[in-house]
Each structure stands twice: as C-alpha cells, then as structure tokens.
Amino acid sequence: MNIIDAFLGEHGSIYVIMDQLRRLFAADASAEECQATLKLFCEVLEDHARVEEEIFFPELEQFPQLQQGPLHVMQVEHETLDEVIAFLRNQTEADKIKEICNEFFELVASHFTKEEQALFPMSRNFISAERLDELGRQWATRRNVCVE
Ligand SMILES: [Fe+2]
Ligand SMILES: [Fe+2]
Fold first, then answer.
1. Arithmetic mean of pLDDT, 24-28
2. Which ligand neighbours the alpha carbon of 14 most closely?
3. Ligand nearest to the CA of 11
4. 20 vs 24: CA distance, rounded Å
5. Prediction pTM value
6. The domain spanning residue 106 has which CATH number?
C-alpha cells in the first residue's frame, strides 16, 4: 500500500464531508446541526494533517528541492488550517460559522489540490516505490487498516 494512495483516499473522504457541510449550509441548517458535522470534519482533517506530518513529511525533509518548495508551503498551510479550526471552535453563531467556512473550505480545497498536483507527484519522483510502500504500512498500522 503506497502511502500517497492512502492519503489520496483520505482526501476523497474529506471531500465527501465537506460537500455534506456545504449542503447543510445551503439548506439553512441550524447552528447545532452544522456544528456536529463541522466537528467531525475538523477532527478528520486535523488527524489527516498530523499523519502527513508524522509519517510522510519527515521523509521529504531530506530532499532540499522538496523542503524549500512545496513541503514548506504545505507545512505553513497546515499551521493556518489549525488556526482556522481553533477559531471556528469558539464560534456559536450560524452566520459567522458559515462565513468563516466559506474561506476555510476554499483553503482546504486549495491545499489538497497542491498536494495532489505538486507535492505528491514530486514525492513519487524522489522516493522509491518500495519506501512509499513501507510508509504505507506505517500508515495502515496507525489507521488500523489491514492491507496484507
Ligand atoms: Fe496536508
Ligand atoms: Fe493531505
């Protein structure tokens, strides 16, 4: 199991929850209804970022072309996403939550697109398929997924 493919699968699941939230917002759902799904979204997103940072990013840091380019951008964006999530957790007004989420969702989508179109393809060029499989096994252990 290649770790990049695992991350792409996680992006797919996060897109599904993000679409669900967009629909809830468009349907004028109550703040409580929005917060329940939003809480799940933020927890899944945070955990996805932590796994990228703990298992994958250290592997990329040994390549200056990645470290000084796309990896640095991704690390800064993870910090920004953490700040937005912390800010969102303190919001209680539905209109304010929706307003913040409009930008938040754009940020998440843009971050994922950069990983999918730049960081991940570049990483496949620098890291061997065998090593990406080994990292994928670490991902599977962390996620309790059986891949053998
Ligand atoms: Fe990320
Ligand atoms: Fe990601």
1. 89
2. 2
3. 2
4. 6
5. 0.95
6. 1.20.120.520
Within-domain flag for 135: yes
| Domain hosting residue 69, numbered range | 3-143
Is 75 within a domain?
Answer: yes
| Residue 148, in any domain of the structure | no
Could you tell me the distance, in angstroms and rounded to a whole number, from the CA of residue 60 to the centre of ligand 2? 14
Overall number of domains in the chain: 1
Distance 66 CA to ligand 1 centre (A): 14
Per-residue pLDDT of 58-111, as tens digits, reads: 999 999 999 989 999 999 999 999 999 999 988 888 888 999 999 999 999 999
* d(CA 24, ligand 1 centre) in Å: 25
Q: What angle do CA 36, 45, 22 make, to 5 degrees?
A: 50
Ligand nearest to the CA of 77: 1
Alpha helices for 1-148 (secondary structure H): 3-26, 31-51, 57-60, 64-66, 72-89, 94-114, 120-126, 129-143
In single-letter form, the type of residue at position 42 comes to: C
- Centre of ligand 2 from the C-alpha of residue 34, in Å: 23
CA of 112 to the centre of ligand 1 (A): 6
16 falls within a domain: yes
